[in-house]
Design brief:
Elements (H helix, E strand, L loop, with lengths): L3 E2 L4 E2 L4 E2 L4 E2 L4 E2 L4 E2 L4 E2 L4 E2 L3 E3 L4 E2 L4 E4 L12 E4 L4 E2 L4 E3 L7 E4 L4 E2 L4 E2 L4 E2 L4 E2 L4 E2 L4 E2 L4 E2 L4 E2 L4 E2 L4 E2 L4 E2 L7 E4 L4 E5 L1 H6 L4 H15 L5 H10 L6 H12 L8
Parallel strand pairs: 1-4, 2-5, 3-6, 4-7, 5-8, 6-9, 7-10, 8-11, 9-12, 10-13, 11-14, 12-15, 13-16, 14-17, 15-18, 16-19, 17-20, 18-21, 19-22, 20-23, 21-24, 22-25, 23-26, 25-27
Antiparallel strand pairs: 27-28
Length: 260
């Protein structure tokens, strides 16, 4: 099968198009764009300069990727929006390229971005993430691998959502969310460990129990976060790597951590 470009599509001769690519009607592919093998670009898609689409990725109608960041400090420097392999980008998603702060906006492999979502400049979305309809990420947001983000979630700039977390629909996230967390309610708080998600990803019951014990000691015992972490450490002969990740995440957080 060869590459198929619809006659109404506008494709720059300075774009690099892989093998077995399909580009649908009325789509625009600007210069300095790369599309990997076996990818499908549906109708009325805009891939602006600096866009990189991986292999086996589907981009649905009305999506716009790689346009200039909505950031006043941007000064037309060369930056990128990089989409991984095996991704699905549904209708009317917008993904801006980076600024000189980071240079790239990144979406990892095997990620599903649902309709009307927005990923702003300098964001990093990990692999195997699901972002539900109308999720809105401000600039410099990091979403860890295997996260599930509910519909219409808004994430404040510079926030980090730890890997394997699940965030309930309609949440307004203004602090960091630790790995493995189940987060919801209004106002937003940690409700516990994302047990179902962890089991689906092959985590053993002993590991899940250890993470849950850590969460109870730190977030649900009346101590502040720092004291809770130190008390937990003082009672443990050995700390599992997954729990140590949570400890390191908390210590490195700049926006503060959601609690129970």
């Amino acid at each position: 099968m060869s590459t198929i470009i619809h006659p109404t599509a506008i494709v720059s001769d300075k774009a690099r198009i892989g093998e077995n690519v399909t580009i649908g009607p009325f789509s625009i592919v600007e210069e300095n764009v790369q599309i990997g093998d076996n990818s499908e670009i549906r109708s009325s898609v805009v891939l602006a300069k600096g866009t990189r689409i991986g292999e086996n990725t589907k981009v649905y109608s009305g999506t716009i990727i790689g346009t200039e960041p909505q950031d006043l400090k941007y000064n037309n420097e060369e930056t990128y929006a990089i989409i991984g392999n095996n991704c699905v980008i549904r209708e009317y998603v917008t993904i801006n390229r980076g600024t000189n702060h980071q240079g790239t906006t990144i979406v990892g492999d095997d990620t599903l971005i649902m309709t009307y979502s927005h990923i702003a400049h300098d964001c990093t979305v990990g692999s195997n993430v699901i972002m539900s309809n109308a999720t809105q990420l401000a600039g410099h947001v990091t979403i860890g691998e295997y996260c599930v983000i509910g519909g219409m979630v808004k994430v404040h700039q510079f926030c980090t959502v730890g890997k394997y977390s699940m965030v309930a629909a309609d949440a307004m996230v203004v602090k960091d969310i630790t790995p493995f967390a189940l987060t919801g309610r209004e106002p937003v708080c940690i409700e516990g460990v994302n047990k179902i998600g962890l089991r689906r990803r092959g985590f053993g019951e002993e590991t899940i129990a250890s993470i849950e014990q850590f969460y109870k000691r730190v977030f649900f015992n009346g101590l502040n976060t720092t004291d809770g972490v130190e008390k937990y450490i003082s009672t443990q002969k050995e700390i599992l790597p997954e729990v140590q990740e949570c400890i390191d995440f908390i210590r490195l957080s700049k926006r503060g951590i959601y609690r129970g």
